[in-house]
Amino acid sequence: MNLYKNNLALSLIFAVLMGTSLTACNGKKEKPAEKEVTEVHEDEAEHSDEIELTEQQIKAVGIEIGTIQEKNLTAVVKASGQLAVPPQNEAKVNLLSGGIIRKINVLEGQKVKKGQALAVVENQEMIKLQQDYLSAKNGFSFVDAEYKRQQQLKAADAGTGRSFQLAEANYHTELSKIKALERQLQQQGISPKNVSAGNITAQTTITAPISGTIGTIQVTTGAFVQPGTSLMDIVDNSKIHADLLVYEKDLFKVQIGQKVSFRLTNQDNQQIEGHLIGINKSFEDDTKGVIVHAVITKPLPNLIPGMYVTGLISVGTEKSPAVPIDAVVKAEGKEYIFIVEEEAKTDEHEKVAPTKKTAQPEKDSPKAEEQHEHGTHFKKIEVVTGVSELGYISISPLEKLPKNTRLVVKGAFYLQSKSTAPTAHSH
């Protein structure tokens, strides 16, 4: 009897231990599955450049699929550079003599015409210059009268040759002195006629040497400026052009008169047109490149010297990969296309699939059928674009694409907006 009770107790203890072991094993199996599901969702969240659309969505937004074509487009030489103006269209307003700035008549960014008053400067030395002019002019009347008298005496053979020569020398000396003083007054912005009429002033007006737009004003009212000091800059952007650097390997293709399509690098790649007008005959320092000069056909009002530009110089025609212009989208200063990515089932996907089944409904339910439907996958690829003609634009993908790659030729903008929208994954 005791033996029977002992066996029964051992059997109960064994059963309890087995149940505990099975419960522990089941708990360990579930946790890795949850971890795998989480890892799958995290992996999907990383691929923001890949988008999946159903056939119904594709039709609804009007997406069209095509291929990259070989088009006979204009061949171009790509060159970078900056906008600039010719030396004769840029001026610095300087003072020939020092003085105190009494008035500034213009503002930075204001357009002015040649000869327009820019500032008023006061200098007491100008009074002495005007006095010297008046003294020379008043003294000239006696020299002029003596010269005319000696001329009359010489004509009548009544005077001496030496007296006539002395009077003639004094006349030309005083006349040249007056002309020099008049020129000095004009350079200072003072009218000799006003001085002759007795209007002496210590203030001079500084005028614009060229027409254009006022740049940086470097002085303030009441400041004393030394001779040769630059008060402000004036730039005439009507003759703005681009200085582009063409490297030695492309130099033989470039000729004067060729058309150039400019892209403003920091202005959302805004395009302007022009043509080449000059090619330098020497290499730039530390480069194997030559500067070429191109004028802009219709300058935009916001063009400023120093802006960075990229020039596409048309040098002929050649076949190049091209897509419709609508196939290219821009984002954050880069350009992209959306290719159709063929879905290939790999062993790795098949290994992950059983893990996903644990979170999916039963196979026969409608929800399960919806989850098993696969749409079209699109992948965003960065490209570098070239010349555009007749609705097509040449492209150079930054990664190698398979032959006959299909891509979105219409509706790429919708895919771009969808790729930038925030996405959330439910666990």
From TrEMBL:
SUPFAM superfamilies to which the protein is assigned, alphabetical: HlyD-like secretion proteins
Signal peptide positions on this chain: 1-24
Region (Disordered): 347-377
The UniProt record lists the keyword Signal: yes
Alphabetical keyword list: Signal, Transport
Annotated ranges, domain Multidrug resistance protein MdtA-like barrel-sandwich hybrid: 98-235
Keyword Protein biosynthesis: no
Domain of life: Bacteria
Organism: Pedobacter gandavensis
UniProt-recorded name of the protein: Efflux RND transporter periplasmic adaptor subunit
Family: Belongs to the membrane fusion protein (MFP) (TC 8.A.1) family.
InterPro entries: MdtA-like_BSH, MFP_Cation_Efflux, RND_pump_MFP
